[in-house]
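Running this now, will post back.
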Amino acid sequence: MTPLITIVLILAASGLAIFFKQAKQVLLSTKLFAGLGCLAAFAVSLPALFGYSEQWNNSFWLLDGFSALMVTLVAFVYLMATIVSVRYMGHEYKEKIISLADLKLYFALLHLFALCMLLTVLANNSLLLWMALEGTTLSSTFLVGLYRKKTSAEAAWKYIIICSTGISLGLLGILLFGYGSSLAGIEGEEIFRLTSLFQNAHLISPEIAKWAFVFIFVGFGAKLGLVPMHIWLADAHSNAPSPISGLFSGILLNIALYGIIRFRFIADLALGSSAWSSRLFLFFGFVSILVPALMMLVQKNYKRMLAYSSVEHMGIITFALALSPLSALGAVIHMIGHTLTKSMLFFGAGEILTGYGTTQTEKIKNLLQKMPYTAVLFLLGILAIIALPPSLLFVSEYTIFTSAFALHPVLSLFILLALSVIAYAMLWSTITMFFPAEEEAVQIIKKKEKFNATHWVMSLQLVLLVGLTFFLTSDKGLIFIDSIAKNTIYISK
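Update: finished.
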């Protein structure tokens, strides 16, 4: 089953958001067509993911276990973000924070943003992959700057300049891979087809493969948010509407990592070993864990705190991909766990922002009494993101560090120290929001918080997170993860 139906439905959702003249029509069409588009995406990905249909590819599309997993994650977070957006942006429209034109622009771009992410992970043509990844930048830039404040405008400019520059470097790498394959005798569109590059990678000059991958790693690494290319990330996440921040951290960063992994596999096949590329992953992964630990200690903005946490987790995955096949399994599990947990936390951050009107941690007090549902779910999300069991991230980090301590014990100790600092900083920032200030008496809250659509979404994500913990630690779950990682993320000897 091709993704054409999904593409048509999501394009329809985007077009209707612009076409309709009333807010109710925009919200209704968004829920209907986004829901249908996600169902169509699941119909494409889930049978291939669980082995009920064969994996396939053609000139444009590639659906193997890895891309099927990514399509499933994108569609799920897109659906959850749409549900949350209907409530979140609907509230902002009613409060006259945004206009009808802003509401229409938001949903039109939300759908295009999700569509570009889906196209990135389904593309078999490397140029199509590049165009779709650049499309995620162009469509989401206006979402970062939606409120037209000075800070959001600066964040949007920083985001588009850094990420587009990075993606341009990535294009040079793709063209170099195409050039190398043409020198090896491959002709026509085959020089840009990923499956052709996989099959003929051993014919590509190792020197060309090295340079090509360096451009792609640095270029796509800017989109991924690896240190030192991460400087756009905290500003964009803190200024974008919270459902978009959830999409950014929850899935967009993984989309950039997907592109790096695909071309890393080609480079490793061309070089005959993963030793060279592993050194890149090891260094940038290690640094991308340490730097956020320092930044977390001085954060006064809970959305920026979550953003730096995303840099840390991308660092953990990158570090894991430098180690062994076992840690590669942990990296895949970590991608799934981070997608569910971080998007959930940003959805919760949106509820806090709606209730308090600020992202400054020090201005939020008595959260547990004023917004008990949000407070409890947000705290559970924080406990999950710092990898307390039974969080899926505990499983992934345990798996990763099993290899890490065997191969790089000193680096692993520094990383554990950094993770401890991050856990302390996140818990301290969260707990300080929960209770009244010392000089304040406990207030009687007259209007109690209602359990709303965002809380249902966050609860579902928590249930999935715990359920997947038990499934992926079973024999069937490990076989399932290995089937995704083998011969796509690590080379099976």
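The mean pLDDT is 92. More later if anyone needs it.
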